[in-house]
Amino acid sequence: MIFLLTMILALAIGYLWTEVHALRQRIETLELTRYWSSESMPLAETAGEAPPERLYEPVPVAQPVPDIVPEPVPHPEPASPWLLEHEDPVVDQARSLGFEDIFGRRLPIWAGGVTLAVAGFLIVKYSIEAGLLSPATRVILGMLFGTFLIGGAEAAMRAQDAVRDIRVRQALCGAGIATWFAAILVAVDLYHLVAPMIAFVGMAGVTAVAALLSLRFGAPSAVLGLIGGLAAPALIGSNEPNIPLLSLYLALTVGGLSVVASRERWWWLGAAALTGGFGWGLLLILNGLIGLSQTLSVGLFTLALAAGFPLLLTGGRPTIVRLIAGVAGCAQMAALVALGGFALLDWGLFGLLSIAALWLSRREAALAEVPALGLGVAILLAEAWPGPPAYALALVLTGIALIHAAPAALRVWTPVTRLIDAPMVAAVALAIAILPALHFPHLPPLLRAWPALAGVALAAGVAGWGWFDPTRCTGGRFAILAGAAAAALALADAFGLAAWTIAPAIALLAFGLQLLGIKAANRMLEYIACGFGLASLLFLLSMPHEASRWIGSLDPADWIAFVRWSVPAAAAVGFAWCAPMLVARIAQALAALLFYSACAQVIPGDWLSVMPSLLLVALAATGLASLRPAAGAAAALAIGWALFPLISWLVDGMAALAGETSLAWFVGFAPAIRQLALPALALGVAANRLPMPHPLRVATSIAAALVGLVAVHIAYRHLIPIKTEFDFIARGMMERTIWEIGLALAATGAWAIHRPRTALLLGGIALAHFGWFTMLLHDPLWRDQDVGPWLVPAYAAAFALVWASGWPLPQAQRVRDGAMMALIVMFAFSALRQIAHGTMPLWQGVDGREDIGRSVLAIALGVGFLRYGIAAAARDWRIVSLGLMLVAVGKVFLFDASGLDGLLRIGAFAALGSSLIGIGWLYSRYLPDDRVRR
To answer: Which residues contact 650 (CB under 8 A, 6 or more apart)?
Structure first.
């Protein structure tokens, strides 16, 4: 294990020395480059290429001859004091990375120095285990051995011509220094041969001698002294170490090395010493500190590491080292406080570190944020303090305020202020407001609220100090302090009053901050006000009062809940009145929603659905475009109430479209009026009265028409109830026909008042309803239906709509002709069936006379279509007529004639032949060959 440690340390030292040597050589070379010659070879010659051939010969121009020709000034050749004559630095650098150079020329020397130091430690341990020497003799021999090693270093330096390697003396010197440290520590800590004060003086002397020797023998001596000094306590070992003495020893070691680092501008040595010191300090804290002396010694040692020793460093990167040391010191001191049981002594040491960090932040600009880090750690420690006494917590909070808040408050409005001053005051104010209530939740409400009021006084007092200067209250400092005061006041309300007051209080604070921001022309404060408004909404939604309601689910009126929702609604109205445009629009919509929620606390649930429609009508009646956000929120609420009946209607409608008989209806008559009819009316008023873009107006009108149509349809279904299958057979045709006629009349009325889109929409719905339900799914030709007198009105309304579609859709003539022919054919055969069998056509079968009548009817329809097609020059009508003729001929030959005999068969063929002859005559009479070809 010792051999492995020796090899590792030797490798580390050799690598560090090689890097430092190469870095110094490079720096010296760069510094000498300014003496080099600036002459350079031509580009073509340097690249090894021939100059380009000239395309033309330039005309020679006579150059003026100067009177005096300057003589060339010789440039000195660069030289390096570390290079031997005729030695190439590139070759030396390459050789320094070779295996033989590392393991043959460099490593053994460093390994030897470390081994000698370890040998001294092993000699002491061996004498202890064997009992050969008395304790005093062992210590004296250790000191003599260290002196012998340092003497060897001096001898090697004086015999430089023979040794020819400066690393020999550096290794011997470092080993001797480490041996001295070990001997003194054994004498005082293990054998108690000398008093602690004498040991302090001895270790201080060794540290001073080590510093002087490192100045004489170079950086490796300091490195070995660092390793030996920091490793001595671990190598010697002790079951019960003297923590104060060990802390002093470590402080002297790190401090001495920091002095040397400052003298030689070796910042890396100081950083390494600080790292070792922090490691020892953390180890001591984790092992536990007992008593005042141990805690005080480790705390002061940590304070020296964080704020004292880093000030000694110069050269390189001292600012970064100081910043890292400050952060590490805060973390280590926090561990000391937490693991030490949060004693007041530990807090006092942490306060000293905070004061030092504050002083350093004023000394160097790069450390300006370190006090904020200390404040954050202090607040977190105070929050994690388990069961603190009241007086102790009060003292800690007072100390935090005096150390962090007071200096920041005095500087916040001065020219020397920094960015962290106002946030630090705000953080201290909030900590004073939160921590007492957090640690003492069972105190009476007023007692828990008093610390929060103290936080309000702190933040508001500092903010008020800057209010009287107009140039101050417009910046971020005033906004942060005012926001912190408002937050502390909200906490006072939360701790001192009932829970239902939190959301209203925050809403009022948000509006007050908004007004204050406008008065101070402080946009950041207005942003903070918006944040408070959002917090109010979150508290309103996430912490509901036990009597709050959303849709009027409670029977008794709850006026407390009404106030709880009304105050944020009023604050939202205030934001809509004075906030910037985007915020005002959002606030206006929120005001409508919150007003509805407030009404939900006192209005019975059955009538709550009326509120959004009434609110939308009231907003639309003003005709103000600025109220569109609130109207949009009211419309969203109204549509939200309409969703349930709409979904129920859609589910029932999808089942009806699939062919299922709709026998049940889940939406009552009164809910359809409240939740559908009134929202449709309100949307219609908004579309006509409220200024809005044309596409939005069209969309609103369509939504109003559709919702209103659904409401009318539900109400109509309740007027003609169909509850059983028998009701569907008896009243289904009537119910559908009246509904389709009503849609047709509505379309006619919309056309009459110059609403072509509405008319087209209603007419299309009527035709679609007729085509799918009356002609396909429930046609009396194949579905049991009591036709009654409704066949003619149903087809007449559909035919009238198809014919009238020529006005808004003149380009759809062929589609219109096809629909008319389909309606005529279906009506004719349905009427024939009803004439033959009465109002229930499917109750009886088909006899021969009806079958012949169908054929004759097909022929008659074909003739009629042909006459109209010839007269109107409509080819589609003529083609359909021929199709009807062919169907009729095929039916007569294949079906009718086979079932007839005698005169009936003769009459059938005679009628068929006459019809065919008449068709041919009509084509030849009214449609010449050229028209037929067309």
So the answer is: none
